UniProtKB/TrEMBL annotation:
Catalytic activity: Release of an N-terminal amino acid, Xaa-|-Yaa- from a peptide, amide or arylamide. Xaa is preferably Ala, but may be most amino acids including Pro (slow action). When a terminal hydrophobic residue is followed by a prolyl residue, the two may be released as an intact Xaa-Pro dipeptide
Organism this protein belongs to: Nonomuraea antimicrobica
Cofactor list: Zn(2+)
Domain of life, source organism: Bacteria
This protein's name: Aminopeptidase N
Predominant place of localization: cytoplasm
Amino acid sequence: MTSYFPRHGDHRYRVSHYDLNLTYRVQANRLDGTARLTVTAADALGVLELDFGRLRVGTVTVDGTFARHTHAQGKLRVTLPRPLSPGERAGVEVRYSGRPVPVPSPWGGLGWEELTDGALVAGQPIGAPSWFPCNDRPDDKASYRISVTTRSPYQAIANGVLMATRRSAGNTTWVYEQAEPMASYLASVQIGRYQISPSGGSRLAHPARLATRVRHDFARQSQMMALFGDLFGPYPFTGYTVVVVDDDLEIPVEAQGMSIFGRNHVDGVRGSERLIAHELAHQWFGNSLTVACWQDIWLQEGFACYAEWLWSEASGSLPAGEHARRWHHRLALAPQDFVLADPGPSALFDDRVYKRGALTLHALRSAMGDEAFFPALRAWTAEHRHGTVTTREFAGHVQRHTPRPVEPLLSAWLYDVALPALP
């Protein structure tokens, strides 16, 4: 299968753990970092190629020994002091510094971005190398420890559980541990002047002046969490944090155990509530269950879009069937020029992919019936918890949960260019 991003990722090795120690100066947009990677060779390995953006590399060591390296065109190539045999492990340390800039992409800059007064990370799909050296492919999931030091007026929020905070000379260090495996594009750091508010077992981080709006607009998030727990299975992570930045964002940003919204997404009347449901659903579909390759993006975005419709139905607004009917009508009027299970890089985040993915699930639900469909979804998230998934695996999975043949239905929705009729 052809990679959508052939310059990102390397299948000759895997990373089981990242230990990132970062110091960030907000006003100067200056990042100093030390990344320690635990690497295991899949093939015989003499040179390690890491994805890494435009930050300046200082030293590289492998198991404590200085290693020769070159850094150009988004690749940090490290000559290993001793070649690794398949299955052998090594510890790689990279020290680096500079002004982080986003990775160019068809969707604009991705990764570390300056805010008016702080920073955020928006990594999907190839933005992780903007701030740390990594094996940037979605199926290479690892545990993380992320330590961030910045000036004390600022909060630093990263994936996982906050393990410690230390204050010294006007700075604060925040240490987070993400034990559950995480793809590199989902690793995230948010830095800003935030107030922390508890919200039904979750955390809300937001500018103090937006407190009333944020608490109102996210007040039903705990109900969403309960609904999705019933429909999809238990929430897959230790905690969930929502960050509302004091800047406008075009769209919310997904990260593992975290979602990031712009101030424009909180209006005090829940005008963006469907997006709250969408980003929360990604904790199951995208973060716990991550696509093994980007061709299968519908397994993340189609599921999150369908979760919007399920929340609408459960909260007394339009039922999922009415959303499906309206969106099917709209898509029928749009160009039919992609295949859902392999839409191509240019259509990766096309709204038609999202909506056709949701329609696929609604068609499957209609064919299977709720008594089979939702138990199949719960089994899907349980069997692949914290792993990677493919379209082929999903098709085989749902067939095992119903006596009715679903292959013709799924084949039409996933692999035909023409839009099928709704059941």
